[in-house]
Amino acid sequence: MAMQTRKSTQRERLLNGMVEVANRHGYVGASVSAVIAEAGVSRPTYYDYFADRDDCFTAAIWDVHGELRSAVAAALAECPPEDATGAAITALVEFAGKHPARARFLFGESMTGGRTALAARDEGIAAIADDIAGVTGSATPSTRVCDVNPRIVLGSIYRLIATRLRRGEAAISSLRDDLLEWLSAYEVPARHRRWQELEPSTVPARSPHLPDTPPLQQTPRLLPPGRPRISEAEVTENHRARVLHAVSRLAEEKGYLETTIADITRLARIDGKVFYRLFADKQEAFAAVHEVGFQLVMDVTSKAFFGVDGWPRRSWEAGQALTQLLQENPRIARIGFVEAYAVGPGAVQRIEDSHTAFMFFFQEGLIQSAASPPPSRIAMEAMISAVFEIIYLQARSPGEPQVASMLPQIAHLWLTPFLGADESNAFIDAQMEVAASSPRRVAAG
Fold it and tell me: Helix and strand tally (H, E) in the chain?
């Protein structure tokens, strides 16, 4: 018994050590050496429990998830269907308030660890979502329940809390009331629920605001052998374009963590010395691709938003352009919504900056909002996080991403807190009738 307890304690120390090191240095800095130093155990002991860093990192995700799921299950026990989503969210917020380091690891750092870690994060969210659905599924037809896929609700709140924990904010419990108010905006009688599943919908005709030439999707031309007949600046620009194209392709095929500089130079067909004249390291090259995508997303979305009059029509056009852009440019979606977390703090900060940028599109909605009071800033952050979670799931999907077909789901998340469920649904239905009568002209990824 004493030996079993000791072994259990050593494993727990290693898992806790992984949480602490990953929170300080990210997945890349969470080496086996750093973890065993934090845990105070020997290297052979580490390998008694874990095959490698990935094995320990993923085990730590599941360890924290198990604690969180138990807390949610306790909150859901004997909970009436109408209160299930709110009870689960309250449990998430309370868990983060009591265990900020473990919550930061699960909610945020789990996204830095590559495909295995992302799968563990997503499976954990899906399990809790199933627990919520199991309670809300017993609602009577007239019972008012939250009409948002619980998987998206949870993913949104993971993101929102992770941002605050990453910044070192302590008052996580203060989020609860705003989040519950946000979710209440989506409540409808159970018989009228229509947004519980992420079902693909008809795609409207191609937005006129999309670029004709998909950036990063087409291979830049190779320069002919010998002395080039173009300026040195043009040569440099050609080399840079080839590196960015290679990085975007490798992000899609291998992911940031598995990609090496040798992979990049081989695919770009440049010498390693050329790469290092352009970029300091792999991280800087990936960050440059992320910046290209971010600028393009904001440019296209803004043009679409201001291309028509009246809100919510502007929001619909912006959402249409955004989703179709990402459908036609899956590499931008992959780097911007999946791989960026592994790239490092700079890219993560860029994601958080994009939340602030998207907040701009809500300002007109606040003026026209039928809600009293209108959505709070935290509610609007949660809405953006929910949209990002939908795009993330599509970008990670093993088959062809269906980002463009998620527009009605995204519009529901975006519009309902401002307009109310009935008016929002009526608006979306009217837009989809137009889409059904228009030919689909959106390129597949």
Answer: 21, 2
